[in-house]
Specification:
about 100 residues; two-stranded antiparallel sheet; alpha+beta
Length: about 100
């Protein structure tokens, strides 16, 4: 009776004007080929990270080197200049500095 644990990205979605990528990873436990349990973890990958130092905004492309080849390929295809500009604008609206 061997118990085997596997993980797989079973759902990848592109969301919104800024083309955020949502990744769902399934962890599956099987015993002798029969599934015993399945759990999920989700994370979102955004094209731009933003910070405000009190007087100006700084925007940087997100490092996706730790993502799977599939997620990297999707990011390369959908993170256009328009998507990055939309993310910058959204970050500046929702992350207003506190005075």
């Amino acid at each position: 009776m061997a118990i085997v644990k596997t993980t797989e990205e079973d759902k990848i979605e592109v969301i919104g004007e800024a083309r955020d990528i949502q990744v769902r990873t399934a962890t599956v436990l099987k015993e002798d080929g029969v599934e015993l349990a399945r759990t999920f973890h989700r994370h979102t990958v955004e094209c731009i990270t933003s910070s405000h130092d009190g007087s100006s905004w700084t925007h940087a492309d997100t490092d996706i080197s730790g993502e799977s080849a599939e997620v990297q390929g999707i990011a390369t295809a959908v993170w256009t200049t328009a998507a990055k500009n939309a993310k910058k604008a959204a970050n500046e609206l929702t992350e207003l500095p506190t005075e």
